[in-house]
Amino acid sequence: MRTEISELGEFALIDRLTDTIETTHPTTIMGAGDDAAVLSFAEDNLTLLTTDLLLEGVDFDLSYFPLMHLGYKAVTRGVSDILAMNGLPTALTLSLGVSSKLSVEDLEDLYSGVRHACGELGCDIVGGDTTASVNGLTINVSVVGTVPRDRITYRSGARENDLVFITGDLGAAYLGLHLLERERRALADVDNPQPQFDGYEYLLVRQLRPRARRDIVDALAAEGIVPTSMIDLSDGLASDLLQICRSSEVGTRIYLDRLPIARETHNLAAELNLDPVVAALNGGDDHELLFTVPLEMQERVTALGLGIEMIGYITPASGGAALITPDGEQIPLQAQGFRSVVSD
Amino acid sequence: MRTEISELGEFALIDRLTDTIETTHPTTIMGAGDDAAVLSFAEDNLTLLTTDLLLEGVDFDLSYFPLMHLGYKAVTRGVSDILAMNGLPTALTLSLGVSSKLSVEDLEDLYSGVRHACGELGCDIVGGDTTASVNGLTINVSVVGTVPRDRITYRSGARENDLVFITGDLGAAYLGLHLLERERRALADVDNPQPQFDGYEYLLVRQLRPRARRDIVDALAAEGIVPTSMIDLSDGLASDLLQICRSSEVGTRIYLDRLPIARETHNLAAELNLDPVVAALNGGDDHELLFTVPLEMQERVTALGLGIEMIGYITPASGGAALITPDGEQIPLQAQGFRSVVSD
Fold first, then answer.
1. In what order do the strands lie in the sheet with A37-39?
2. How close, in Å, is residue A107 to chain B by CA atoms?
């Protein structure tokens, strides 16, 4: 018997592979199913562990992805999962499968991006594994973090009437990828290609060098705010918010006209005949944080500034998950993750 | 400027990339440079972290490597690094880059091997990342473990006159690989190939399904023995013992006629015109433990049984590292790691 992976679909594949995995170790508080695993080694703090794999040709294209940025982004992707548990990163390991088409200087560029991101985020590089690859470049980042026991935030804690907040803006990374792909195609046969990115630099930064939102987790801690639930926006707002709903057994309503979309995202979407709202909902790769807090905390969260926006609220599960348009229409949210396969 | 990776060599590459990395986090006790990173989150115990990348076409060949065994071996490789710090594994994450030539059933086989090894070793599977791969199968295993502070064993603690012990026997995994490669070549053009492994099953098991030596770490703990240094035998006895010498700033003498080599290893080496001692010294992939203890602990270690063998002793650094032949000749030990690139 042979079942094709494509036939099953990626969500179902992961469920099938991991569904019956039980954790038995007394130190394992939470295994798969949230942004990071939760381990208990100390009295006051919990230890967090997450891993992310990036493959050439799937997650990045080296023809337009500078290696320094790629190193930076690999760290962002790993650390964002720790932040989404309301924790801070402490240590990171880097596995590299290196094809011979890369030079030593290329790898130094990659490492310099990794170091820069780790420096910004207060995370040590503590080891790794470097192997020759006969295929493309392979990068795996594993990150360990910590969070005080009374501050840990799972996907499962959202409650009816909680408010839904997101940081930053949505869809820019996705449009940045479209822009890079357009220029690559346009310049495929050109000597000394000069891609045209004028006016869209912001979108490139969001795609090539997204920043993990440690500032948000620090600010929440400084103000003594603990979200009821939180997730890293990696697969797209729709998909990630549905994960919160599924884990918390709740529904949600979000307002279309509250979705924060940057001017550059609107502009390029118009130029490319794309719907910016679709990019915002399903674009993915934003690496912003989505979280919920009780209604009565609205003002305290808004007072944080930092570009945090309230986009909706939590309903009972029976209400389902929907987007409300300005004229009051309700459109069911559907998961259409941007990445080919979904990760924790 | 472009420096080829092959030009620099793999050891030098890793040194160049990681040499200037400093760790600054107060919880980071030890970063790169030992079998696992050492983190301090609790009063009594230290937390260990290690990562290992396995790539199709480099680390394994799916034409003869059953996926169930591959899953098992990936766990062995990761967990061995935790054991080599005298720690025990608690949690493991599994990243998979999956090519479409694999079916869902293939992945279930892989996972069943991972589960089986984790079950034997008392380690929970706590998460992962599954991604489509346009190239071959990619596996990354990250393992977290713990060790009491007073039992942690680094590579750097070997002292003059300490004795050198190893577990198991050497070179069998390497000969097992030769056997598999020989049959693959011989049967490349044959329908319904029937490889001939009679009498060499032991070598296949050592290559395809090596067992991580948790039993050794448990026995050392039960008897209250703390080695002065320890390392996982992954790159070959010569290379790994030289790591101990370098980290501990000592030299060593090991006796050729004390190297434990299985009868099957001798037999196949004779058949293939290979030197079994070279296989034992440089074969790699054994995943046994090499450790040192003070001279006065010899009897206590020997009394453990478990196939632990004393193969030599530690000298001052000025003595260098050498193999002593039965007629008293001294041959300098040289690192000739079997794996194409060296990992932690």
1. A28-30, A37-39, A45-55, A138-148, A88-99, A124-133
2. 8
* Per-residue H/E/C for A219-248: HHHHCCCCCCEEEEECCCHHHHHHHHHHHH
Asked if A131 and B53 touch (Cβ cutoff 8 Å), the reply is yes
Top-level class of domain B155-332: alpha beta
pLDDT in tens, A252-270: 999 999 999 999 999 999 9
Helix (H) or strand (E) holding A113: helix A104-121
> How does pLDDT run across B24-56, given as a tens digit for each residue?
999 999 999 899 999 999 999 999 999 999 999
Chain-chain contact of B132 with A14 (C-beta, under 8 angstroms): no
Q: Which of B126, B135, B146 sits opposite A136 (nearest CB)?
A: B135
Give the right CATH number for A5-151 from 3.30.1330.10, 3.30.980.40, 3.10.105.10, 3.30.390.10: 3.30.1330.10
Strand ranges for chain B from DSSP E = 28-30, 37-39, 45-55, 88-99, 124-133, 138-148, 163-166, 229-233, 250-255, 288-293, 309-316, 321-324, 330-332
The domain spans of chain B are 5-151, 155-332
pTM score, whole prediction: 0.94
Q: Do B5-151 and B155-332 have matching folds?
A: no
User: β-strands A163-166, A309-316: how paired?
Assistant: antiparallel
Q: B192 at the A interface (CB within 8 A)?
A: no
ipTM: 0.93
Residue B258 structure tokens: 């004390």
**CB-based contact (8 Å) between B10 and chain A?**
yes
